[in-house]
Each structure stands twice: as C-alpha cells, then as structure tokens.
Amino acid sequence: MSDEQRKHQRFDVEVAGELVLDGDVVGASTQNLSAGGVALLMDREIADGQSLDVTLFLTQDGIEDPDQEPFEATAVVRWVADREDGLYLVGLQFDAIDGAAAKRLQHFLRTIG
After folding, report:
1. Are 59 and 36 in contact, with CB atoms under 8 Å apart?
2. Once rounded to an integer, what is the mean pLDDT over residues 76-95?
3. Within a 13 Å sphere around the CA of 31, how many CA atoms are in the beta-carbon half?
4. DSSP 13-76
5. Rg for the chain (alpha carbons), in Å?
6. Where are the alpha helices (H) located in 19-112, listed in sequence order?
7. What's the pLDDT band for 31 if we cut at 50, 70, 90?
8. Contact, 80 vs 89, CB < 8 A?
9. For residue 40, is pLDDT > 80?
10. Residue 48: which region, alpha, beta or left (left: phi > 0; alpha: psi -120 to 50)?
11. Residues in a beta bridge with 60
C-alpha cells in the first residue's frame, strides 16, 4: 500500500515490544509505527488474521522513561513476511486502544516526527 493510500503516517522507529502468543510473552522490535498500526520484527511466525495483545516501550534514543507507562493495545495481524535471516516482519493493525494509551502513542509520534 502506498503512503498516499495510508490513513496514518508511518514513522521509521525502533523500539522494543512484546506480544502475547498462546500464553507466552514474545519479544519483538518495531520497524515502523503509526497511530493505526506497527510493523514488528520477530523470530516467530504468526498467523495472518490472529488477534493478540501488544506492548510497546516507547523510548527516546533507547532510554525508557520510568514514569511513562508502556503503550498497550489489542491488534490484528494483517500480513507476515519471512526474511532471509530467519526473522519475520509482521504487520499489525491496532484494534482496541484505550484513550490514555492512544494519547501516549500520539505524543510519542509527535516527538519523533
């Protein structure tokens, strides 16, 4: 999908994240992030269409603010691409975000934009 067709501007940013998959917490890192979704790099393949909980640790220059809560949302897997290095790039669309989390994400995106 071209940038002109996207509803939300994407920002190339790498922050740590976690997904809950089948009861396990799995680490991941972002490749890009927007108000509507995220592309994550991870070492597990997951099913397209799967709904899951995602946590992102929104940091500036790799420094986590201890007073800032992580961003948490429910998301749906929209696409999965395997890479030659054995990792997977996974596109998630945020499905359910509470108001406070949405504000934290918008603030973070403004600071990096």
Report:
1. no
2. 96
3. 11
4. ---EEEEEETTEEEEEEEEEE-SSEEEEEESS---TT-EEEEEE---BTTB--TTSPPEEEEEE
5. 13
6. 99-112
7. very high
8. yes
9. yes
10. beta
11. 63
Residue with tokens 């949302």: 73
Residue 60 has φ and ψ, to the nearest 5°, of -110, 120
Residue identified by tokens 């696409």 is: 79
Domains of the chain as residue ranges with CATH: 11-112 (2.40.10.220)
Based on DSSP, count helices (H) and strands (E) in the chain, helices before strands. 1, 7
Answer yes or no: is pLDDT of 3 > 80.
no
Q: Is the pTM of this model over 0.70?
A: yes
Handedness of CA 42, 58, 1, 19 (dihedral sign): positive
CA distance 82 to 11: 21
Band of residue 64 on the pLDDT scale cut at 50, 70, 90: low
Structure tokens at 17: 């994240």
Separation of CA 82 from chain center: 17
Q: How far apart are CA 102 and CA 17, in angstroms?
A: 16
| Residue of 45 and 42 predicted with greater confidence | 42
